[in-house]
Amino acid sequence: MTEVINQDYEVSSEGAVRRWEIPYARMTDTSPTVTLPAEVTCLLDGKQMTGTVLSIDATDSVAIVDFTCSMVYQHNVRNVLTYNPGVAELTWGPINIGDLVYYDSSASMPAGTKLSTSPLNTGGTANSLFGRAVPYDIAADTFPKGGITASTQVCAIMQVGAGGS
Q1: 61 closest CA partner among 31, 19, 29, 37
Q2: What is the pTM of this model?
Q3: DSSP code of residue 69
Q4: Do 132 and 98 form a contact (C-beta atoms < 8 A)?
Q5: Which residues have C-beta within 8 Å of that of residue 9, sequence separation ≥ 6?
């Protein structure tokens, strides 16, 4: 049997790109902003699907979110490690290559910052894993970023997206 190669074969250099339209009402931040991280609500705390907002349609109250696993975007990351439950940030640490980064819905997060290095929010509830800090377009010699005092750092984050955990 002779093998047949289809002439109209499609391939993506990015791999399996996952970009979906999500209603604002299904997002943790119901007023999403283009280029910021997004989290889709679900029943289990810490298990929400996360990605990066690519565009918004305010008329229809929907956002296009990139949920592609391993896609890398630059985001602001708060270097908080733990919270004094219900109060404020308690401890901080430097952000290093490969560190876990979480979508943090704590009210104390600075404006324009949705990510932190804390696995729990101010209420003691699990934060969803967003991805890992990587040296993409940001020189590896700039790591670690921040220190043992509160700061917000611009980091390249390889997102977990819809295909990882």
Answers
A1: 31
A2: 0.86
A3: T
A4: yes
A5: none
